[in-house]
Structures are given as C-alpha cells and as structure tokens.
Amino acid sequence: MAQVLLVEDDAKIRTTLVRALGELGHAVASANTAMSGLKQAVEERPDVVVLDLGLPDLDGGEVLRMLRAVSRVPVIVATARDDEREIVRVLDAGADDYVVKPFGAAQLDARIRAVFRRARQEEAGDPALVVGGLRVEPRTRVASLDGVPLDLSPKEFDLLHYLAQRPGEVISKRELLTEVWRTVYGSADKTVDVHLSWLRRKLGETAQDPRYVRTVRGVGVKLVDPAP
Ligand code: CA
Questions:
Q1: 51 close to 60: Cβ distance less than 8 angstroms
Q2: Which residues have C-beta under 5 Å from ligand 1, the single-atom ion?
Q3: Distance, CA 53 to ligand 1 centroid (Å)?
Q4: CATH classification number, 126-223, choose in 3.20.20.60, 3.40.50.300, 1.10.10.10, 1.20.950.20
Q5: How far from chain centre, in Å, is Cα 145?
Q6: CA of residue 84 to ligand 1 center, whole Å
C-alpha cells in the first residue's frame, strides 16, 4: 500500500487507474497537468509518482528534471512510445522505471512494489563500496575518486555502482543494459558504450589508456583497482 500520485491528462485512463490501484490497496491522488502534478508532488509528498510523458503543458523530460530538482520521490513514467531512445532518455533524466501504454493496473502495481523494494534496499544503508581510490555511496548517491567528488549523471552513477558491486568481474553489456537501464530493447553496445565513455572521461581515463574501467573485447567490462 502506497500513496500514489498519478499525473495523467487522459481522463479515461486516469479514472480507470485511480479505481484499479485503489482496489489494490493504494491511496491514489491524481493531477491532469504537469504543473499541478509538480505542485502536488511537493505538497503532498507521495511515496511514488506515476508520470504520463505526454502531458499538455510540459515535455515529460522537463517535468522529470523539475521534479528531480526538488524531490527524490520514486517516479515511474508511462510512455506511449515503445522506443528505446525515449526510454533511455527518461531513465537518464531520473525516472526509476517505466511502463509502456497500454498497461494494466496489475503491471503498474508490480512496478510500484519493485521500486519500493529497491528504495528500501538503499535506505537499509548499503555500505559504501570501495575499489582502489574510488568510493561509491549508494545511500547518498555520491561517488568520489581519491577523495574528490565526481560529477556524475544519475545513470553514470548507477552504472558505476553496478560495476563496483562486483569488482574484477567481467560484466556483459547486455546485463548492464538489462540491470542498469532496465530495458531489454535495442543495442546494448551503443547505449552502454556511450555511458562508459562519459564515465571514463569523468574518471580521467580513456578506452586507450584505461585504469579503473577495463573493456574485455567481445565479453564485457569490469571495474578494477588499478594499483592492487
Ligand atoms: Ca497523455
């Protein structure tokens, strides 16, 4: 049972979901524009926000950024487009998960419960992960290298955090796409490679002269202590 804020401009979808989620035991509030959704998210402090990307007043990615600037509430986006680029974009902008329209209340309920499980694990105070001079703190989502905080995007942090949980182990790009981006669609090579290259740049290294992030050709990538 959760306090759910549903931001959706389609009255029919809104009514159906409010009722169905209510029957599943959730307390559901709703908004029909991005601006009223943002206001309610701040004032009513829901446990989770379900955000339609196609709202009349603001672009979905913009809404996410505005919401992230003021709140860490878990956000599940609802998109009408089963499009990898769009999904990667919203996950990068700080969404926790997504559903593709049309979706049923049961699926949304399962996503809500999964988001809560992950939030609880984070709150349980995952200890900081240390690999050489790298320190990754899941609770505060801060990573540092040799004591200097790294300016990482949410997805770069997630990627580094995932790799740091299994230092020295080669992890496939397909697994990273599935676990970090939570999508099975599209090219793992392209999506993961781009973020790996950004991450490397922030760690002050390159693919040609790697230190922490090592690519194992044809297999995947691993995070290592460069000076064990
Ligand atoms: Ca819509």
A1: yes
A2: 9, 52, 54
A3: 7
A4: 1.10.10.10
A5: 22
A6: 19
